[in-house]
Design a protein that fits this description.
Elements lengths: L1 E3 L5 E4 L5 E5 L2 E5 L10 E6 L5 E5 L4 E4 L9 E3 L10 E6 L5 E5 L2 E6 L2 E5 L10 E6 L5 E5 L2 E6 L2 E5 L13
Antiparallel strand pairs: 1-2, 2-3, 3-4, 5-6, 6-7, 7-8, 9-10, 10-11, 11-12, 13-14, 14-15, 15-16
């Protein structure tokens, strides 16, 4: 994925080459030696505070206060409550929370607390394809099995029986 930082630089994740930053027409790669947890960076995202979030293929999500640096930031994986280490989407909401989509469900990080949703909580499928917080306080979640809306902690799934086509929505 691709994300724009507050300074206008463009960041892109790669499949095995870490992340790349393009600033002023110059590219710079960041890898394991720069503090990344793994070389496959599936998702890159800058939150409202300008912090860089990197979602990995297998090791969860990592938040850097700026550019990657050894020992900087904080990370979360399945051992910390994420549904899976395979990250598929990251978005921030208007309340300062971060929504993380994985191959096995959805998580919300806010003020040090993680809440998670999966099929058991009403998602049509565990594999999250995309996340969109709307201006009304709902979070829309595209999954391999349909679309869901999370509002006030509850999930409402939109599936073929609700009129959606019988195929997975694209992110």
């Amino acid at each position: 994925s691709v994300s724009e930082a507050p300074d206008g630089s463009i960041w892109a994740g790669t499949q095995g080459g870490g992340v790349a930053r393009i600033q002023g027409g110059v590219a710079r790669a960041f890898g394991l030696e720069d503090g990344l947890l793994e070389a496959s960076a599936q998702v890159v995202h800058h939150d409202a505070d300008g912090q860089l979030w990197i979602g990995y293929r297998t090791l969860g999500v990592h938040r850097f206060p700026g550019s990657p640096a050894p020992g900087a930031g904080e990370s979360w994986g399945p051992e910390d409550g994420l549904p899976s280490g395979g990250i598929t989407a990251i978005e921030n909401d208007s309340r300062g929370g971060i929504w993380v989509g994985t191959r096995a469900g959805l998580a919300h990080l806010q003020n040090g607390t993680m809440t998670r949703w999966g099929v058991e909580e009403g998602l049509p499928h565990g594999h999250v394809l995309g996340i969109h917080p709307d201006r009304h306080g709902s979070v829309w979640v595209a999954t391999m099995g349909g679309l869901a809306r999370v509002r006030e902690g509850r999930v409402f799934a939109f599936e073929p029986r609700h009129g959606l086509p019988d195929i997975a929505p694209m992110s």
